[in-house]
Design brief:
five-stranded mixed sheet, globular
């Protein structure tokens, strides 16, 4: 079935309510009582840590979204109930739409009690196009929202909002630094020093004052950082091992980037594969978020130069 514009707007409100209720639960948590467990997905520590909070937040979100799943035959893909071995049999591959939920992205910064974690909810078409994106930051209380027109419909338009107020991509100042948002794991990458050197060259080419490296946030808040702190970029190179982020790490922020008219693609400049048929991971194609298409092109050139 095809969702109407009014139905999409109603689903956005429900997604915001779900994210903010989960965020309220997160704010009330006493970290001294946390129980940290492991999960056998991905290759980095951040993908292998789960807390009782993740599971509790998922229950809150599902309780709010469940009626829509039944009413509109929407599939559900959530970090805490996704099974890699069954990825190619998931209902998201046959239903017209699916919810893509990360109840707590950035588990490590959450455990450490620092900013950089978020609740993330997206509604994605079977084609992999993100229609709705909601990101709630429990630390600041801000909620980022995106509502994009379906690929075959031009009557809805795209809207990027912050706590229900229309907003736009931030504009760089005359003395700006190029902000590079990156994961902790990339600091140990053998090409890290070379990448930083090339980013400094890119910053100089565009007349920026240098590079500001932001490390330690989850993938969701790193992508939001690109929208909030232009000029900025966040990217992950493809790799053979499973990981590189998951569908739920990028679906909501991809929706936000599209609606804010920022750049979001894979490392080759193609649309993100947000409904990958054989896996929940994104390691096969990498990702690029950039506040400017010229910055994105430089990153693609950078990858080509070091991937040979």
């Amino acid at each position: 079935m095809k969702l109407t514009n009014e139905q999409l707007k109603s689903l956005l409100k429900l997604a915001v309510d779900a994210a903010e209720q989960a965020g309220g639960y997160i704010r009330a948590v006493d970290r001294e009582d946390l129980h940290v467990n492991g999960k056998s997905t991905g290759s980095s520590l951040s993908t292998q840590v789960v807390t009782d909070v993740d599971l509790a937040c998922e229950k809150i979100i599902l309780s709010i979204l469940q009626p829509t799943i039944e009413q509109y035959s929407i599939a559900m893909l959530s970090e805490e109930n996704a099974y890699q071995k069954e990825a190619n049999q998931h209902a998201r591959l046959t239903q017209d739409y699916f919810w893509c939920v990360d109840p707590l992205d950035g588990t490590l910064p959450f455990i450490e009690g620092v900013d950089g974690f978020a609740v993330s909810i997206a509604l994605v078409e079977r084609s992999g196009y993100p229609l709705i994106g909601v990101v709630h930051n429990p630390i600041t209380g801000k909620t980022y929202q995106a509502l994009n027109e379906p690929l075959l419909d031009s009557s809805l338009g795209s809207h990027y909002l912050k706590s229900w107020q229309e907003c736009t991509l931030s504009l760089p100042g005359s003395d700006s630094l190029l902000s590079f948002f990156t994961d902790r794991s990339f600091e140990s990458h053998p090409l890290y020093a070379q990448v930083i050197e090339k980013l400094e060259m890119i910053a100089e080419q565009f007349g920026y004052q240098g590079v500001r490296i932001v490390v330690g946030q989850g993938a969701v808040m790193s992508a939001i950082g690109v929208l909030e702190h232009a000029p900025a970029c966040y990217f992950k190179f493809p790799k053979e091992a499973e990981g590189g982020g998951s569908l739920w790490d990028f679906s909501a922020t991809a929706a936000c980037a599209i609606s804010a008219k920022a750049w979001v693609t894979n490392i080759h400049g193609q649309a993100l594969d947000l409904n990958r048929k054989d896996s929940n991971f994104m390691n096969h194609q990498g990702v690029i978020y950039a506040s400017d298409p010229l910055i994105a092109q430089k990153i693609m050139d950078l990858y080509k130069s070091i991937a040979c």
